[in-house]
UniProtKB/TrEMBL annotation:
Subunit field text: Homodimer.
Leader sequence segment: 1-21
Species whose genome carries this gene: Gossypium australe
Domain Copper amine oxidase N2-terminal: 32-121
UniProt record, GO biological process: amine metabolic process
Single GO MF descriptor: copper ion binding
EC number: 1.4.3.-
Cofactor info, note text: Contains 1 topaquinone per subunit.
Keywords carried by this UniProt record: Copper, Disulfide bond, Metal-binding, Oxidoreductase, Signal, TPQ
Post-translational modification as stated in the protein's UniProt record: Topaquinone (TPQ) is generated by copper-dependent autoxidation of a specific tyrosyl residue.
Residues of the Copper amine oxidase N3-terminal domain: 129-226
Full protein name: Amine oxidase
Amino acid sequence: MAHSLKIFCCLFFFFLFSTLSIIPLSNQLEQHPLDSLTPNEFIRVQAIVNQSHPTTTNDITFQYIGLNEPDKQALISWLQNHRTTPITAPPPRQAFVIARINHQTHELVVDLSYDNIVSDNIHHGFGYPLLTFQEQNGASQLVFKHAPFLAALNKRGLKVEEVICETFALGWFGETKQNGRVVKVMCYYLDGTVNLYMRPIEAITVTVDLEAMNITHFRDRLVVPVPKAAGTDYRESEQKAPFGPELKGITVVQPDGPSFIIDGSRVSSNK
């Protein structure tokens, strides 16, 4: 449970900061055709895709959802007409989606004007879409139930509760060597530091098949000493001279208000 919590916290903050970039910064009076999808639109897209595949035998996972930008000429025409006739209807609002459905990668275009799927193509090329947080967390937790891995930690004299594992893509080995969705699990040791990347547990190789969610390969080649924790904690509270003194505060203000206006993704001068 401790391992899951640590990993979840890291992934949560990454997701939070990534998501903030797609949420409108203010209440928009009018939606521009190139504005990012809103949180409500994300929910609608997921509902439309889920409803279109009611017979799926496994959970549908969404690797990517983003705006499917309108045709350039249609956008230019709308912009020109909009200046003189503000009530001109904008181009259809669509989303581009990459999802895993029944162990296949689907590339979909969803029309938000009619709440339907315009196209649904199954990807047959090489490579595979982004990993989800659930997949990464599930794969990294498998090693803690794998007896050979626990034995390898014991051989090194490491505490299981101080070990954190993460997943990484295997890399590209040529088009003839595609073997499904497989990741490599690499582990690190805390025990006296929060800078886990300074204390890798070397020479242990673990690969996981994300579709079957099981360990497909394990190898413990040799014992490499884990670097010491001393001097690896980067937090300000742990720093000592000459890494100081603390910076003095600074304040930047515009007493008459900002010189710009932010409306969704648009920035204009506030004259």
